[in-house]
């Protein structure tokens, strides 16, 4: 009946390093909890695998051959804890942010000097026929989980499809939509949304006219 928060951060190995120190997840709008400490759990190199012998190319990694597409996954996780109360209609927001975005980013306006924020929202849930939403303690529901690692390199000039392969322990329905990039210092009232650089937009964030299937989460486009 207790909560465990897990945060995964994907680091461009050409960018700012991360730390194995604990980080603080900010809690917005909860009446008594302002932050949740996330302990460092692990980090791993998830750079694309290649065959140096047959391809003639060195294996990308985050230690010996750092290239565009070299990426690490960092995982932070909280200890089990209680989160009592009923979220407001706008939900409880959970955020963590840091500086800095890579200055070489081309789909955002003026990325140099901007940070980033990751966020999640817990909305109230009302059982059919009940007059009020459920108290969140004890924990009665789990968040969906992305089971697929991100892809950082694809073949240019070929159609490509990617799915997060998300699943939900309680078999709840999952709906997908694009999200806005957010600068560091996120709050629900002032989310600090970063504008896209034309011709990109919130619904077309990468080259190739990507199409997002809201029911399956599959992203397909011509690279």
Could you please describe the fold and organization of this structure?
This protein has about 220 residues and is an all-beta fold. It is built from 1 helix and 11 strands, in the order βββαββββββββ. The chain has one helix at about 50-55, and strands at about 5-10, 25-30, 35-45, 70-75, 90-100, 115-120, 145, 160, 165, 210, 220. The protein has a 6-stranded antiparallel beta sheet, with no helix packed on it. It has a 3-stranded antiparallel beta sheet with strand order 8-11-10, with no helix packed on it. The radius of gyration is 19 Å and the shape is globular.
Topology, element by element:
Layout lengths: L5 E7 L10 E6 L6 E11 L6 H4 L15 E7 L14 E8 L15 E8 L22 E2 L12 E4 L3 E2 L43 E2 L6 E4 L1
Antiparallel strand pairs: 1-4, 2-3, 2-5, 3-4, 5-6, 7-9, 8-11, 10-11
Q: How is this structure best summarized?
A:
With 223 residues, the chain is mainly beta. The chain has one helix at residues 52-55, and strands spanning 6-12, 23-28, 35-45, 71-77, 92-99, 115-122, 145-146, 159-162, 166-167, 211-212, 219-222. The chain is built from one helix and eleven strands.
Strand ordering within the main sheet: 1-4-3-2-5-6
The percentage of residues in β strands lies in 25-35%
Largest sheet: 6 strands, antiparallel
Would you list the SSEs in sequence order as H and E?
EEEHEEEEEEEE
- What is the straight-line distance between the termini? 45 Å
Coarse shape: globular
Q: Mean pLDDT, as a whole number? A: 92
The Rg value, from CA coordinates, equals 19 Å
Strand-pairing-aware structural class: mainly beta
Q: Uncertain spans, ≥5 residues at pLDDT below 50? A: none
| Count of alpha/pi helices | 1
E-strand count? 11
Overall helicity: under 10%
């Amino acid at each position: 009946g207790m909560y465990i928060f897990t945060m995964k951060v994907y680091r461009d190995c050409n960018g700012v390093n991360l730390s194995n120190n604990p980080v603080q997840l900010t809690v917005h709008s909860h009446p008594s909890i302002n932050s949740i400490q996330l302990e460092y759990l692990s980090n791993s190199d998830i750079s694309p695998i290649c065959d140096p012998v047959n391809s003639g190319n060195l294996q990308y990694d985050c230690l010996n051959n750092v290239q565009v597409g070299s990426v690490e996954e960092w995982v932070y996780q909280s200890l089990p804890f209680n989160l009592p109360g009923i979220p407001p209609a706008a939900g409880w927001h959970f955020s963590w942010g840091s500086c800095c975005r890579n200055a070489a980013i081309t789909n955002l306006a003026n990325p140099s000097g901007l940070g980033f924020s990751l966020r999640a929202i817990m909305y109230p849930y009302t059982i059919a026929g009940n007059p009020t939403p459920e108290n969140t303690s004890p924990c009665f529901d789990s968040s969906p989980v992305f089971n697929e690692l991100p892809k950082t390199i694809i073949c240019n000039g070929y159609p490509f499809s990617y799915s997060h392969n998300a699943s939900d322990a309680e078999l709840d329905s999952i709906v997908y939509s694009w999200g806005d990039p957010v600068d560091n210092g996120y709050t629900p009232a002032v989310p600090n949304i970063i504008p896209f650089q034309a011709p990109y937009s919130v619904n077309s964030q990468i080259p190739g006219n990507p199409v997002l299937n809201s029911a399956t989460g599959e992203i397909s486009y011509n690279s």
